[in-house]
Fold:
Amino acid sequence: MSMMNLNKLIKPSTVAIVGASESAGFGGDTTKNYLKFSENLDKLYLINPKRETIFGHKAYKSLLEVEGDIDLVIICTPQSTIIPLLREASEKNCGGAVVFASGYSEVGEEGRIKQQELIEEADRLGIAVMGPNCAGFANYINGIFAFAFLVEERERKGNIGFISQSGQIILSGLDSPNMGFSYCISSGNSCNVKVEDYLDFLVDDEDTKVVAAYMEGVTKPAQLIETLKKAANKKKPIIILKTGKSDKSQQLAASHTGSLSGSDKVLRAVFKHYGVIEADDLEELCGAAAAFSWIDKLPEGGKTVFMNVSGGEAGVTADLADEFGIELAEYKQETKEYLMSLLPEYGSVNNPFDMTAGIGYNTPVLCEAIRTISKDENVDAICLAYTITPEIWDDTIAHMVEAVKITREEGNIKPVFWMPFIEHTRHLESANTLKDAGVPLLPTGKYACEIMKKIFDFSVFEFEDLGAAIPENVHNNTFALSEYESLCYLRDKGVNVPAMEVALTPEEAVVKAESLSYPLSVKVNSRDIMHKSDVGGVKLNIKNEEGLNKAFEDIIDSCSSKVPGAKIEGVLLKPMLEPGVEMIIGVNNDKDFGPTIMIGMGGVFVELFKDVQLSPAPLTKSKAMSMIQKLKAYPLLNGYRGSKVCNTDALAELLVKISEVAANGKDTIKEMDINPVFVTEKGVSIADGLLIVYED
Structure:
């Protein structure tokens, strides 16, 4: 769908409401909303063949009775009327339609057929359709309120672009007092305009500072990647609440809007790669969006000073900072000395900083404290931690808010946040003062720290673009290579693989063992046996010719017996490797997003601990090192409890090389499992490997 057509949908000049009425329901509620909140009422046409007037405005019998073109039709009538009305609208050069009707892909096969018919007809007519099964949208920039649910009358204009496949979630956002919007879009089933199209529109939109989205599935992965890349290069924050972590959530997504949740872990790795901020629930989505909306400048790092008015709350704050990984700034000595001079005798300077009443109840002194902390080069951000109540009974709130206002208006103050401890309706004047000062009023404790940490991470995020490796062809059938074939493939692509030989007979094994040197590992060589140890297909530490002959015989006998149909091509001989920390490197080639690289603790522990990091291929060296360092098992590589420090640089280089092999093999490799990789102080060595490849 072209941008011109999307503009006609979201930024129309002329609008018609079909099925407009004065009664409760889609027709009446949409009309009430539009008349109450929209600005272009002279370009609004109400269509109802049974009425002469609606709320005092002229009613037209049909779209064709209207003179001139109609950019957008809002259709409030049942499913059976939709396609005929779209055909009628096309005669008025219509470019956009909002369809509230349900009964499409969300209800089963019959509904999917009806939705496909709607898509085909809308495409033929050149009409961008929002919905079906949606709640409409609100464009606060141009004053277009095409939304079906009644809402409280108040100012909502701002700079958040909000998209949701669920209309009720849009309604929840509209009810949030801290959120101000450029656009709110309920996409519903996403007919011929998908969530990805709306995301792209908002990333391009100059009136939108931050994009917030509730997503149930992805239908245009290549476009999504291009949009996320564009946002990363513009440093425009995108916050996404994506369902589908649980099997039940995936089932609900399919039944709700007909979406497919896709490969959830792969999608989340893509989000992380492009700097998308993931929200864990709706409270965090709205809170993070409001914080990015309010803040006037991102911090340069995450070193934070928390300012409290009591020792008890300072203790709570310290635990929260530790739980969510917020770095507590270390004051310079001159900062500490000056703050001490502001405190009463019983006070002390720590972080979190218990200001006591001596500072908290004194606006000029608090201003001095904020200025002093902000000047400290070891500080990136300040967070005032105090609960703002619905009404101000405690003068501390007034003093603190006033001090923030004064210092922020002076300029040259580092980013400031406000964290309450208890949930309340906030004193409106205080909230507005903080908003005007560019100070986010965060949700309570845990949510506040989670949001601050994500803002800090986003502020230092540096996007490294090596290009996405999206498969160009659709593949269905796959087959597994043997370990020998897999390692040969990697060796041919420039990966350092230990020496190895295949022997078809015991006699050949003895001869080839001489070139490898004992002790050896001996493994069955067969494409048909992937889990060799389970069927007696592996013998380790073979030290001489006698042991080798017995190992050959035992392996062939066991595997022939336990996997009777397998094609066995002798055994694979390899020297035993120097043991080290066992890691795994894996590749999963997603049909939509391409190969994703995995690094984690290897051997038998990979399934037990599930300690892995994922990222789309290819990787930069810095990205590879970051993945390694984020593992919970990283201390094992870094000299844990007196052990030798492993060569993580060599591991990162191997990870980069495997990612390049995977990216170049995006239409060849389906999966790769290199497990274990031994990491020592000298370097890395690959002990085993498995490739699953596509059939030609």
